[in-house]
């Protein structure tokens, strides 16, 4: 008997002793990963043949008719949702995922084709509608991976709408993406922090299954956007004119507001752990100083927050995302040619010294408590 089975059997016996369960422990069969991969590949292969048939019969005939393409895409989404609601194995789930993603692409492309590409893609209303459409699919279709991908699509739609609204008269200037995306970094950080702090209540209310993949997608999108803002922001862009003057502010806005969220999470954790007021003040001072130093690299600040949230939730995927964001953010910030080597070296050195000082203070506090 493996360790996992022994642990499960022991937990079942403890629950039975307390009268919370009755009877024998049910057997849970775990499909080997190789079988799951083969079944998933079979689902995608079946979806490929289905879509080739669809292309040969419907898409070719309706290639000049955007409305017909959009209706066909919506029908494919409905078929995928039906397959999800009926349940099934791995192959059926992957088949439904492939059909749904293709249907979403056909529906959006058909709508754009019918209304005019330039007219639609330069409209904030279209991107906002796309965000609402993807959000509705994320809420209605009961599949974790499908919800995660649709939630990412909703964030992309929201990013497009915000860019067209905030870029003003220069929507084609891709450098202004740092300004419009910079506001989404603290928003995403606040949402995933709120989810983490309220996770126990969400589990008790039975809403965790619905909201967890949405939180995963939010964290993934937030860290990706923070990396974009970190890499694209240029401190001397204000020399290019009033429109470009907003670009150098992007990383400071994103990093500063993300630091506020990080400080709020640190304070909530200090209170949960019942730390002394003096230690709480030291933790907040350290977080504020670190955030001020690394505000020019919001990906690092967001990565540190993701690392703390991952440790709070005991989530390995979030831990990996946080570490990757910190590493890539540091590398991207340090390799940026528009920052002087002296400024980058001083920032990293002081940030490292600050972290070591905080670690030393926490170790001394713990040692003093153990001695007492």
From TrEMBL:
InterPro entries: DUF4401 (IPR025513). The keyword Transmembrane helix applies. Residues 32-364 form the DUF4401 domain. The chain crosses the membrane at residues 41-61, 67-85, 92-112, 124-141, 148-168, 174-198, 210-229, 249-270, 282-310, 316-334, 341-360. Keywords: Membrane, Transmembrane, Transmembrane helix. Signal peptide: none annotated. Pfam families: DUF4401. This is Conserved hypothetical membrane protein.
